[in-house]
Amino acid sequence: xxxxxxxxxxxxxxxxxxxxxxxxxxxxxxxxxxxxxxxxxxxxxxxxxxxxxxxxxxxxxxxxxxxxxxxxxxxxxxxxxxxxxxxxxxxxxxxxxxxxxxxxxxxxxxxxxxxxxxxxxxxxxxxxxxxxxxxxxxxxxxxxxxxxxxxxxxxxxxxxxxxxxxxxxxxxxxxxxxxxxxxxxxxxxxxxxxxxxxxxxxxxxxxxxxxxxxxxxxxxxxxxxxxxxxxxxxxxxxxxxxxxxxxxxxxxxxxxxxxxxxxxxxxxxxxxxxxxxxxxxxxxxxxxxxxxxxxxxxxxxxx
Length: 303
Prior knowledge:
Elements: E1 5-14, E2 17-27, E3 32-36, H1 43-51, E4 58-63, H2 72-76, E5 79-82, H3 94-103, H4 111-117, H5 133-145, E6 151-155, H6 163-178, E7 182-187, H7 190-196, E8 199-204, E9 207-212, H8 214-221, E10 225-230, H9 236-243, E11 248-254, E12 257-262, H10 267-276, E13 285-287, H11 291-298
Parallel strand pairs: 3-7, 3-8, 5-6, 6-7
Antiparallel strand pairs: 1-2, 1-4, 8-9, 10-12, 10-13, 11-12
Helix pairs in contact: 3-4, 5-6, 8-11
């Protein structure tokens, strides 16, 4: 199946600033695809070029078979967008906003159905300014879906939300994908990317520094698990036994402190070896690398 989005060699500059430099990726139908990176990495510029909101300087982009620069009008009816720092007039009511946006896309679902679907019916007469952060985000996502898009772009959608509202918004995104819409998600939150993204690219200084599923990135850019414990007296014999275990990369010892680095499957053999040598530490801890570990290794910040 052909990808719904293809980006090849995308570049965008503002004077001497190269916001995006030679970015390439594909988005598959029905997935949640993430662009993960720090503020200023070029994520928003990338998705704005992909949507045709900014003119690219170089490269090839197709979305649903259309060029967003030369076929922007046709593309607008087939995509939805919740832009970074999206907002509405504070006095505009929820129902008014949905009715207005729906009028631009008469081929889409009835706006009242969208309002009910996203839990906004009880707030139909409420002004945008009176809504909580989570309710505002719910409305903005609903507006991005009022034309029943094939692809929706969500840019930093949970910035500024409290933990409960963030998790409620994540549920919305998963509902969008379940409904058959492809999601392009821009974020700088590791937990968000890990929870939602089927695949993602890590962007830094306008370039892609890694790509894959969250699990693939963790496997490719980290050293496996580490098991730490202390034992007294100094655990010379057990250290030698641990070093001989299959899958152990190295064992570091500093006095009574021992750190075992190895493949994820070594945790159980390490525990078995400790028991066999009469070592039962009460501070044994296992650290499994995460997407955050990958991010910190790949992304450099000079500020």
